[in-house]
């Protein structure tokens, strides 16, 4: 399938977060850089991203791990998003309202049927680690583009 261009990857990320579902809480997330198998995004913590005590909501943190690691998988030679089989997040410190965070996802390994990714969520200003996630996805056989990319993931070569 081949790796997406950075502009195509931006369109994929935008389509993920601009939809009608839950992922729209990340509508202000920006793709900062992309290399094959590695993605860096930025998000400024706003009120809609916080819990009752004004810090980054743990559920949103888990969603960031899910979505950004999937984008990293899409930005590989195989280009498959996969299906989650395991995901865990360790919450190490808080991100406060108004702070900017970086979400860095990297594909550790892609085998025949499984892919393993890691995600670091850090404070942009201090570099302090806020959360760390691991995400395992089943890749399965290579489907047609029409199956995984019906409308928003269509490739532009």
TrEMBL record:
Membrane-spanning residues: none
Principal subcellular localisation of the protein: cytoplasm
UniProt keyword terms in alphabetical order: Acetylation, Cytoplasm, Cytoskeleton, Hydrolase, Lipid metabolism, Mitochondrion, Nucleus
Span of domain Thioesterase: 54-127
Domain of life: Eukaryota
Keyword Electron transport: no
The UniProt record lists the keyword Mitochondrion: yes
Catalysed reaction equations from the record: hexanoyl-CoA + H2O = hexanoate + CoA + H(+); tetradecanoyl-CoA + H2O = tetradecanoate + CoA + H(+); (9Z)-octadecenoyl-CoA + H2O = (9Z)-octadecenoate + CoA + H(+); hexadecanoyl-CoA + H2O = hexadecanoate + CoA + H(+)
InterPro entries attached to this UniProt entry: ACOT13, HotDog_dom_sf, PAAI_dom, Thioestr_dom
GO CC term (a single one): nucleus
GO biological process, one term: lipid metabolic process
Compartments in which it is found: Cytoplasm, Cytoskeleton, Spindle; Cytoplasm, Cytosol; Mitochondrion; Nucleus
CDD domains: PaaI_thioesterase
A GO term for molecular function: long-chain fatty acyl-CoA hydrolase activity
SUPFAM superfamilies tied to this protein: Thioesterase/thiol ester dehydrase-isomerase (SSF54637)
Function: Catalyzes the hydrolysis of acyl-CoAs into free fatty acids and coenzyme A (CoASH), regulating their respective intracellular levels. Has acyl-CoA thioesterase activity towards medium (C12) and long-chain (C18) fatty acyl-CoA substrates. Can also hydrolyze 3-hydroxyphenylacetyl-CoA and 3,4-dihydroxyphenylacetyl-CoA (in vitro). May play a role in controlling adaptive thermogenesis.
Subunit structure, as described in the record: Homotetramer. Interacts with PCTP.
Protein name: Acyl-coenzyme A thioesterase 13
Organism name: Latimeria chalumnae
Gene that this polypeptide is encoded by: ACOT13
């Amino acid at each position: 399938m081949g790796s997406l261009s950075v502009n195509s990857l931006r369109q994929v990320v935008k389509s993920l977060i601009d939809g009608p579902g839950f992922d729209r809480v990340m509508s202000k997330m920006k793709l900062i850089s992309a290399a094959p198998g590695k993605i860096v995004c930025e998000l400024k913590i706003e009120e809609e991203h916080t819990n009752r005590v004004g810090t980054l909501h743990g559920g949103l943190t888990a969603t960031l791990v899910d979505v950004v690691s999937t984008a990293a998988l899409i930005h590989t030679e195989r280009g498959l998003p996969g299906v989650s089989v395991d995901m865990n997040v360790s919450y190490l410190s808080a991100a406060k309202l108004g702070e900017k965070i970086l979400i860095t996802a990297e594909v550790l390994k892609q085998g025949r049927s499984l892919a393993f990714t890691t995600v670091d969520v850090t404070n942009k200003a201090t570099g302090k680690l806020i959360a760390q996630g691991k995400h395992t996805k089943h890749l399965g056989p290579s489907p047609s583009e029409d199956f995984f990319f019906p409308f928003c993931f269509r490739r532009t070569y």
